[in-house]
Amino acid sequence: MSSAHRNQFSQLIILVALTAPALIACSRQAWYQGVQASHEASCMKEPLSQYEECMKQYDDSYNEYEKNRGELSEDSAVKSK
């Protein structure tokens, strides 16, 4: 492999390493939003008197979800020790 090809390959590896975490985070957020939309659709099938209560169950923003997820992961790690 010539030095030009090695340099291009190194740049590609760096690019992938820098963008992969962002893509994973975007994918997780898109998944969460899809699940939220599904929950909202199921709440819409409820009688009007139960709709608001149903929606409150799924009211967490993605940031709140991530925070709670992190806390649960930390709790699990502590309990497994």
The helix count comes to 3
Largest sheet geometry: none
Low-confidence stretches: none
Helix content range: over 70%
Kindly describe this structure.
The chain is an all-alpha fold. It has one domain. It is built from three helices and no strands. It has helices at about 5-45, 50-55, 60-80. Helix 1 (about 5-45) packs antiparallel against helix 2 (about 50-55). About 0% of the residues are buried. The model has no long low-confidence stretch (mean pLDDT about 80).
List keywords for this structure.
about 80 residues; mainly alpha; 3 helices; elongated
Topology, element by element:
Blueprint (H helix, E strand, L loop, with lengths): L2 H42 L3 H10 L4 H18 L2
Helix pairs in contact: 1-2
